[in-house]
Amino acid sequence: MAAETDELAKELSEVKLEGTRAVLVDTVDGVKTMLKQLENTREVAMDLEGVDLCRSGELCILQLSDGKTTWLVDVEALGESAFGEGGLREFIQDPSVILVGFDGRADADALYHLHSTKVLGFYDVQIASCIRQDKEEGRRDRFVHGLGRATARFLRSDPDRASALERTKQDGLALFAPERGGSYAVWKERPMPKALFDYAAADVSLLLDMKREWEKFSPVKENVARSTVRINKAVMASVPAKGKQMAMKDF
User: Fold this and answer.
1) Is 181 a domain residue?
2) Is 200 inside a domain boundary?
3) How deeply is 33 buried, as exposed, middle or buried, from its count of CB atoms within 10 A (0-12, 13-18, 19+)?
4) 14 — pLDDT class (breaks 50, 70, 90)
5) What gap in Å lies between CA 162 and CA 169, rounded to an integer?
6) I want to staple 30 with a disulfide (CB 3.0 to 4.6 A). Which of 24, 25, 137, 202 is the partner?
């Protein structure tokens, strides 16, 4: 399996990820090595993929990126050992590390209830995207922005990159989105289909850049405070963080 995953990583399109490299981490030693490489990094992009991702679902892949390397931690293969022996729990709960993501509510719900891991210090690019619109364009929506909308806005001056990223996303969606004939269960398949590998890596490829561009509208301290309220509300709720109500602006 290691040879297959190494080859998969080599095949990842550099165009899609703008020159960053992606690595699949499917051993406890691999998780430790990743965290060693990140030990002096105070800002890391994070996302999760899985089946019905929330407390009632399954976490299969956890992505971390420092902007140069993207690691896809195979939680489906490693289970609790990734968080305990591997050290992921300690890293995610380190208050000195800013985790940069897009709408961390469902991800935090899954991490807390499935893996006893509390998300701290989360900078939410979704909040920044909405506040940017409020301040720069002078209009407010009742609903939050999806990642696709925020990405399109961020890449509006780079149509080639936007087009390449959209193709990557569509290829992945075709495999797991039920409305397109896919199944979320595909995230459990090993070896992982290359389209899913690309999709997961692409999901975090812009988060750090978006945060740095938009934090002038949503400063870190203010954003993290708002995000903490959102996440705590979602995690402590009596129901999973999913459903149409998640589209309503709550900040």
Assistant:
1) yes
2) yes
3) middle
4) very low
5) 11
6) 25
